[in-house]
Please model this.
Amino acid sequence: MLTIQFFALALLATAHARSVYLEDLKLQPYLIDVTNIDQDDFEDALTDHRYESVHPAYLNRVRRQLGSMSTNPDGSTNLNLKVPLVRGESNVLSAVGSASGIQSAAGYRDAGIKAGPGYGAAGGGLALDNIHGHQMSLTGQHVPGLGNQLTAAGRLGLVNTENHKLGANAFVTRTMPNIPNLPNFNTRGGSLDYSFRDKVGASLGMAHTDLLRKTDYSAMGNLNVFRSPTSSVDLNAGFTKSQSPFPAFNHNWRPQGGLSFTRYF
Model:
């Protein structure tokens, strides 16, 4: 029954953040659905040792007991928190929080955006993880210079074994700008991702914003270069494409990637 419920919610899930540029509206770039900590595996939320004997196959990876801190190619930092609230035999309900694109004063001056420290987006919400790889979440966040966003997301675990993980994701984000004459608008999308032994992975994603008549595509791959119980180094590379009748939003396939460092705590 739970699997059927998650399948129905697969239209409300995602695994990837999408960048939207409103250059003609004089806005800075911002991220949609950057609160993606709900994508973490079920074992990341388990801190009760009784699960080690019941489900040992799901506990052979790094356990994120509270959260993680990661770096971006531009030098900014992301913080994620995930605190279990209620545990069952197959499900964990957690409180989640995140802050992305945290920059120092020097970082913002170098980027030519503004002087002084700041962040790209911050928020929190609730996430439900199932032992079979199904997930869903409801999160809200504030984006400085734009407004607020509410995201409903979910994941259907198609394959969830020790060596192979395949999932279908979908999401819908409601953006509520605090900019005069800019109406509320929705962005919806989805992706399909695969990973082998948590070392090599790939994903295909798409997101569409009706207001901008803009569709974003992505084809990405990732390689885990190093992992320890407390840290991880990952290489991400791929291509992105945007289609829109507005030239400011339209571009063909562009390379994208970088090396990221993550610290778990």
